[in-house]
Amino acid sequence: MIGYRFTTYIPEKIPQKGSFESLLDIFLQLMVITGGDTTETINWLNNLDRQYNLLSNDYGIGNFVDDLKDQGYIKASNKDGVFEASPKSEQKIRKNALKEIFGKLKKGAKGDHKTPHFGHGDENTTDYRGFQFGDPLDQIALTESLKNAQINNGAEDFRLTERDLEIQYKDFKAQTSTVLMIDISHSMILYGEDRITPAKKVAMALAELITQKYPKDTLDILVFGNDAWQIEIKDLPFLQVGPYHTNTIAGLELATDILKRKKNKNKQIFMITDGKPTCMKVGIKYYKNSFGLDPKIMNKTFNLAAQCRRNQIPITTFMIASDPYLKQFVQEFTKINNGNAYYSNLEGLGHLIFQDYKNNRRKNF
Predict the structure, then answer these.
(1) Which residues pair with 316 in a beta bridge?
(2) Alpha carbon distance 341, 332 (integer Å)
(3) What is the b/e burial string over 270-288, where b = at least 16 CB atoms within 10 angstroms of the residue's CB?
(4) What is the DSSP string of 192-239?
(5) What is the pLDDT of residue 83?
(6) CA 101 to CA 198: how far, in whole Å?
(7) pLDDT per residue over 305-325, tens digit each?
(8) Among 184, 191, 272, 289, who pairs with 294 as Cys (CB 3.0-4.6 Å)?
(9) Are 270 and 316 a contacting pair, CB within 8 Å?
(10) What does the alpha-carbon distance between residue 315 and residue 329 come to, in Å, rounded to a whole number?
(11) What's the gap between Cα 5 and its chain centre?
(12) Do residues 246 and 290 lie in contact, with contact meaning Cβ atoms separated by under 8 Å?
């Protein structure tokens, strides 16, 4: 009978008001919003302190900045003694994003990437079976086999026979190559609505998840505005929106070029956007049209969606705005690609990305 085991409950320590720990989380959140501008972040922290009394009489902003330097979260840059974020800050921000968005993950829960097949795989399980002719020798469980030999033949007449051998099951894990596309067009901060910060948090959480839990997977990140270009994981927390249109075509072309170089079969694209395509490059010039759905831009975009479908690359689009033209575009784009689309508010982005990441991984083995 399975029962419950009770242990002493030890509550989490709550940082005291005005302590370094209580301010660090706020500081790092603000660093994401300001794009890594340390001076602006500290100014914002000062304003928040005046409004909400974050600091105590014994611990001021000067003390906090000194502690940030001493503990390696900021470092002096080469220009005018201005401080900039260190790699330690960037790593801490990504870990916080993972905890915030995927913090409730448990082993075996939704999103675990194992397949239902046993055999030649990546990870050992706790299941065993008897050896059969043709089984690979590297899957023989030596300890269990020796134990069987001792039980079956005794210690005095010890010998290892075929009937003593046991095979340890292994789980397959489907390797996946993912390209994450992030829209950095001007509309991501238009009308006073910050859409880029939650998008960055999702990207950071996904990057940290793959890096920690699925090291054999590949994740490439690109941003697209008037053009598209790759960025490093370390650049994610401090990504900023530019005065750009939305060149979805350039993003898709770069994403497919990246995936062509990957050898594994499982490939997918995630695209986070809040606007319809409004730009494409023709020769050395840009063709732009922000009004409605331009047929010239749409046809090229839909052709790329069809090309990805032929190459078995599903595209999952996360729409983070309610523009009717965007909805119309996403519906047609998803139908052509046979991919997935989510019409989500910003708070639900993390969960939806994780759900679809799991589903696409299980599609091919």
Answers:
(1) 270, 340
(2) 10
(3) bbbbbbbbbbbeeeeeebe
(4) G---HHHHHHHHHHHHHHHHHH-TTSEEEEEEESSSEEEE-GGGGGG-
(5) 87
(6) 10
(7) 999 999 999 999 988 776 788
(8) 289
(9) yes
(10) 14
(11) 35
(12) no
Take residue 229 and report the two structure tokens written for it.
Answer: 């270009």
pLDDT at 112: 47
CB atoms inside a 10 Å sphere around CB 143: 9
Instruction: Tell me which residue of 266, 346, 282 sits closest to 314, measured CA to CA.
Output: 266
**For 230-259, how does the pLDDT look when each residue is reduced to its tens digit (9 = 90+)?**
999 999 999 999 999 999 999 999 999 999
- Strand stretches in the chain, DSSP E: 74-76, 83-85, 114-119, 123-130, 166-173, 176-183, 218-224, 228-231, 266-273, 279-282, 285-288, 315-319, 340-343
CA distance 40 to 286: 34
How many other C-beta atoms can be found within 10 angstroms of the C-beta atom of residue 90? 22
Dihedral angle, C-alpha 108, 112, 113, 115, nearest 10 °: 30
Could you give the CA distance from residue 96 to residue 102 in angstroms, rounded to a whole number? 10
pLDDT of res. 108: 42
Rounded distance, CA 199 to CA 33, Å? 11
Which long-range contacts (C-beta less than 8 Å, at least 24 apart) are formed by 148-152?
A: none
Element containing residue 117 per DSSP (H, E): strand 114-119
Below-70 pLDDT ranges, the chain: 1-18, 78-81, 103-127, 155, 169-174, 322, 344-347, 351, 354-356, 358-359, 361-365
Q: Rounded distance, CA 352 to CA 38, Å?
A: 32
Cα distance between residue 97 and residue 136, in whole Å: 42
Distance CA 37, CA 23 (A): 17
Q: How far is CA 170 from CA 119, 123, 136, 153, 271, in A?
A: 6, 5, 12, 28, 34
Q: Which amino acid is at 297?
A: I
Beta strand 176-183 pairing with 266-273: parallel
pLDDT in the model for residue 9: 54
Q: What is the pLDDT at residue 15?
A: 55
For every residue of 56-83, which 3-state class applies, written as one string? ECCECHHHHHHHHHHCCCEEECCCCCCE
